[in-house]
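Sigma-70 family RNA polymerase sigma factor
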Amino acid sequence: MTTKQESLVELAQNGDEQAFYQLIEQEQHKLYRMAYVYVQNENDAVEVFQQTIIRAYEGLPQLKDPQYFSTWLTRIIINCCKTYLAKKNSVQLVEPHSLEDLNSTSPTYIEEELDLWHALCKLEEKYKTVLLLRFYQDNSVKDIAVILQCPEGTVKTHIRRGLQALRQQLKGAYIDEWVQSVERSH
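Predicted structure tokens:
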């Protein structure tokens, strides 16, 4: 996080609502997308996003280190999603074609992405969460460990086991290529 963002966090912690809104504006697309992936519809995602903003605003004075604002906010939205889904008693992820415009993408690529997405949806939540944070949100292993409040070794194990589970579900060549490229990248 830049010094400007840290300054905004400090201003927001001291009651500057405009600084808080600026911080949220910087994070809103990432937060909304994470909520949408978990809850699978726009209205629910907006509701979870709003709950996250309220919790963040109320909890901001307790944030000890301003440089971890983004990580802290991501942890809040994951917890809000889990709470929301527990109330609805269903955990389903959205197919990637509903998150982005794939018109310019080849049909084979779309089919492969959907197969991968469906396999990801079937994983245990601990594997699904680390893979989403790592490969769809592009967080580092270290950042994921901070977000989930667990050791980096646990994150690496969950990533490895999640990738192995995906490989078993998708015995096609493209998944092997994708998993190998992912494994080399961390």
